[in-house]
Amino acid sequence: MGLNDTPSANRIHIGFFGRRNAGKSSIVNAVTGQELAIVSDVKGTTTDPVFKAMELLPLGPVMIIDTPGIDDRGSLGELRIKKTRQVLNKTDVAVLVIDFAKGRTKEDEELIAIFKNKKIPFLVIYNKADLKNENTIHSEKITGNDFENANEMAVSARTGYNVDKLKERIAALAHTTESKFMLVGDLLQPSDFVVLVTPIDKAAPKGRLILPQQQTIRDILEADAAAIVVKEYELREALSNLGKKPKLVITDSQVFAKVSADTPKDIWLTSFSILFARYKGLLQTAVKGAKALEVLQEGDKVLISEGCTHHRQCDDIGTVKLPRWIKAYTGKQIIFESTSGMEFPGELSDYKLIVHCGGCMLNDREMKYRQKCARDQQVPITNYGILIAYMQGILKRSISMFPHILMEMEE
């Protein structure tokens, strides 16, 4: 990923839902102005969710998601419906596509109920309006003017009728979903120095920094501060040569202990993972969750969950290092299970702790969903960096720039 590319986690996720042959893919193509989805009169053409990152005016960077029909049939159909429901967990704005001539069905009403229950802003659009009088919808007497005052509207993918208005309404709904959390910029003043400690990650493509490092650098620059990037064994010399004390040192969690030892106590120290926990609204919960380490027993299960999928290295942090460190800290034989990407169990009650990655590849809604699942089932949840800092005895120092959370931890 280039530095100028907007990460998928920072894009508004717009999901298109509905029954088979309602015209979801046609609407997606009309909205994007591209042939992103295969269109056919045959029911069930879309067999898996299709994700496409793009720019959508007047909104900006978005992730368009075309989903399989919610009324799919058979054992494969059930799997497709399950994937469609998983997409709902990361959908910022939902568009329910209904065949104008057929009107709402039981499946449509069920989707609307899910949108409301999950508090997803949504629009109901009646496609194929060119094939029917636009002032009447099957079984519902809704006039064209009524569409102006509700979250419903008639659209024609074939003729382009109301497509521009649909995009405007999607953009209006999307503005209500923007995150209220910051990454690092609000901690800085113009001309501040920030030192980033970035060991070369073998899992990253050659020639690139990993995404959290890229995003943090961008946020520092937007705050009119300066970012200085070093490897872990260069930190001590860099600090002595700066001539000015940095406001903050941000480190990769895997070298937390060394960086803490090399960073003077009067300089703020934290990690990329801790900053992302705050950015995703997980920090307060994750700090409390780390304490669950103290009560783990022999044979307890711990879930380690990554938001992305990548080729695992021989000393992978999620499947190798963290289990090793947790076993060493607790002195217990713990059972570890792992998930990656969109996988996240609905049933969590067997786990005594969930350790999540920073979530840089997951949008806010997906992270909030996972956090809610853990909270509802009373399973503690934390993240990589916070747990590592806790095990190494430096968590209090690592959140000292967030005094309200530090006070709660000390209570």
> What is the architecture of the largest domain at the second tier of CATH?
3-Layer(aba) Sandwich
**Strands across the major sheet, in which order?**
2-3-1-4-5-6
- In round numbers, the mean pLDDT is 83
Number of structural domains: 3
Number of helices: 15
CATH superfamily caption of the largest domain: P-loop containing nucleotide triphosphate hydrolases
Rg value? 24 Å
Instruction: Compute the number of strand runs.
Output: 14
Strand fraction? 15-25%
Structural class: alpha/beta
Main CATH class of the largest domain: Alpha Beta
Low-confidence spans: 38-46, 134-149
Please write out the topology.
Layout: E1 12-18, H1 24-32, E2 50-56, E3 60-66, H2 74-88, E4 93-99, H3 106-117, E5 122-127, H4 144-148, E6 152-154, H5 163-174, E7 193-197, H6 211-222, E8 226-230, H7 235-241, E9 248-251, H8 256-262, E10 268-271, H9 272-279, H10 283-290, E11 301-305, H11 317-330, E12 335-339, E13 351-356, H12 364-376, E14 381-383, H13 384-391, H14 395-398, H15 403-410
